[in-house]
Amino acid sequence: MTPPGPGYSQFSRWTWGLMLTASLGSCVAGSEGPTVGRNPTEPGPGLEADLFAGPIEVPDQVRLDSILEMTIGVRNGGTRVVNPGWVIRVMLSQDRTIDSADIQIDHFSAPRELLPGGEDSYLRHKKLRASTPAGPYYVGSILDVTGAVSESSEGNNTLQFPVPIILTAQGVAPPGTN
Ligand SMILES: [Ca+2]
Ligand SMILES: [Ca+2]
User: Fold this and answer.
1) How many domains does the chain have?
2) Can you give the pLDDT of all 178 residues of the chain as single tens digits?
3) Residue 94 lies in a domain
4) Which end of the chain, N or C, is more open, meaning fewer C-beta atoms within 10 Å of its C-beta?
5) CA 48 to chain centre
6) What is the domain range of residue 64?
7) Distance from the CA of 55 to the center of ligand 1, in angstroms?
8) Ligand nearest to the backbone CA of 53
9) How far is the centre of ligand 2, averaged over its atoms, from the C-alpha of 22 (Å)?
10) Distance from the alpha carbon of residue 104 to the mean position of ligand 2, in angstroms
11) 64-92 b/e with 16+ CB inside 10 Å = b?
12) Is residue 97 part of a domain?
């Protein structure tokens, strides 16, 4: 909206002023936000979620050609509900530091909402890639990799204490099964 140029009538000047007032008025109302008639499912101001990586359970060792069963723990230390659909990556690392350079073994969306102060765990079954070298590893998680959840802390979304696991070569029969 541009101001009227020279030569406008008294009427158009009045109209312009009224329109300007109306748009400023709606702007102010929008930034403050209505307090009456708020959708009851909308969280109040100042509430924030805070996902953080919970414990992971895996077997001590698994053969590369078998199914790895994992329980992936997550927590919400914040004050706002986290809706489902944010993405978790599960990583296999040769050291204790989990980062995006590690081998990704799982990638899924959180299936349930996570209440403030709540925790949940997701049971997962994954077949490892046969090309993965056998040996000792750590399994860890990285939460909300797509940045879908706004959190009071984004720096605690990687599991700090990943769990050890030994991957054994496929086709090697355990003793006593011949
Ligand atoms: Ca977090
Ligand atoms: Ca986040």
Assistant:
1) 1
2) 555 555 545 555 555 444 444 444 444 444 444 445 555 555 567 899 999 999 999 999 999 999 999 999 999 999 999 999 999 999 999 999 999 899 999 999 999 999 999 999 999 999 998 899 999 999 999 999 999 999 999 999 999 999 999 999 976 555 665 5
3) yes
4) C
5) 13
6) 51-168
7) 15
8) 1
9) 37
10) 19
11) beeebebebbbbbbbebebeeebbbbbbb
12) yes
Burial class (CB in 10 A: 0-12, 13-18, 19+), 5: exposed
Q: Give the type of residue at 151.
A: E
CA-closest candidate to residue 52, choices 144, 128, 150, 126: 144
17 belongs to a structural domain: no
Q: Measured in angstroms, how far is the CA atom of residue 106 from the centroid of ligand 2?
A: 19
> 36 to each of 24, 131, 140, how far by Cα in Å?
21, 60, 45
Supply the CATH number for residue 84's domain. 2.60.40.10
Q: How far is the CA of 12 from the centre of ligand 2 (A)?
A: 50
Q: What ligand has the least distance to the C-alpha of 158?
A: 1
- Distance from the alpha carbon of residue 144 to the mean position of ligand 2, in angstroms: 5
Flag whether 103 is in a domain: yes
**pTM (predicted TM-score):** 0.71
